[in-house]
Amino acid sequence: MDKPTMNPAPGERVLRFVGDRLRFSVRPPPGLPNGSRAFLRTNLGKTDRLRQEIVATHAGKNPMSIAFWR
Length: 70
Known about the structure:
The protein is of the alpha+beta class. Helices cover 17% and strands 9% of the residues. It has a two-stranded antiparallel ribbon. It is elongated and about 50 Å long. The two termini are 28 Å apart.
């Protein structure tokens, strides 16, 4: 089965500033069953948590986790 077409593409770096908008879109491949869903995962607004994890990792306390993703 073909993969969905995503815009912006996965892994693409996009620089935006306060007040900017960004549109995300996913186009399903032909033959995808009805009722399929897509989710957007972001770490926006989680800088404090990410900073804490980075400091703890460098201090040797905890390995880096993905807890700051939502």
